[in-house]
Amino acid sequence: MKAAVCVETGSPLVIEDIPIPSPRAGEVLVHNHACGVCHTDLHVMKGEVGFPLPGVLGHEISGIVAEVGAGVTNVGPGDRVVGSFIMPCGTCENCARGMEDLCTTFFAFNRLRGTLYDGETRLHRPSGEPLSMYSMGGMAEYSVTPATSVFRLPDELDLTDTAILGCSLFTAYGAVRNVGEVRTGESVAVIAVGGVGQNIVQLSAAGGAEAVVAIDVDDDKLDLARRMGATHTINSSHTDAAEAVAEITGGRGVDVAFEALGSARTTTLAVDITREGGRAVVVGIPPAGTTLDVDLARIVRRKIQIKGSYGARARRDVPDLIRMLAAGKLDLGGVISRRVGLDEAPGTYEALDRGEILGRAVVLTGG
């Protein structure tokens, strides 16, 4: 099969021919149809997040089940499926506590070592050299993933569009519903409306937020945010965002401010525009070692909560998202601005790094 391999940091992905992997007990082999292009992959490619290389990135997949390992009963060969980037083991302490988004096994084995949960990768070069897996290694024609992270799709849902459910929408859902706890009538600000930010906008609007303020430096992204449900937009490249939010909210600030870029500057802005008793939710992944300098007295006196959000709870939240999509309550196709073949994956990541991707790009890994 073809796979886009990250050989070393600071270099473009390389398309290689590698053997099709096989699933082991409790695992599923997916013939991938599409994989979303996520900024988190760029952190690995640029060396901003430690990850063993060479490896196959990509963690937003949709496709058809090709084979299942022993003991798998939730899906079978021929099923149309979507995968979540967090692949819960289902048995660690955090999974048992209902906190699959903090699965200890996922972080220890996959994010730190690039393997599945027996400590081995399923991907190798023809020579036998192992290739690390970032989640399921979705930038390839086939992927192996634990059965806990794949979910059947109704026939009416588009297989290309739903690829971005597993990270972009999944991450936004965890932020809006589980951490930000956006309630009907509240005001929301979303700082940086890329792929995840656009989905935070539409989930906040669908959840009944009265005001949804999108903040970015790109007018095209702000126009898209309007279509996704933003009631106000602010281009912070030529407008003071904090002053503009104060004007929109009558000087109060917003109930919930989401930071979806991953920088200290924009996180500080999120805290600054949060009203007393409100929540500043940090969703964007910053380079390792990034720190935040805030006025602690203001945090205490105004009872402001600063909360981190990483993904969602796969086995509970993905079925909810599938139901919302099937009911027509969300629009994934509107978030996707570019669809390319696997051979174009290296250049698409370069375009993402230059800030040229509106919403989300999707690589059609299955042709």
From TrEMBL:
It comes from the Bacteria. InterPro entries: ADH-like_C (IPR013149), ADH-like_N (IPR013154), ADH_Zn_CS (IPR002328), ER (IPR020843), GroES-like_sf (IPR011032), NAD(P)-bd_dom_sf (IPR036291). Keywords: Metal-binding, Oxidoreductase, Zinc. Residues 10-363 form the Enoyl reductase (ER) domain. Signal peptide: none annotated. The keyword Transferase does not apply. Its cofactor is Zn(2+). Belongs to the zinc-containing alcohol dehydrogenase family. PANTHER family: GROES-LIKE ZINC-BINDING ALCOHOL DEHYDROGENASE FAMILY PROTEIN, NAD-DEPENDENT ALCOHOL DEHYDROGENASE. This is Zinc-binding dehydrogenase.
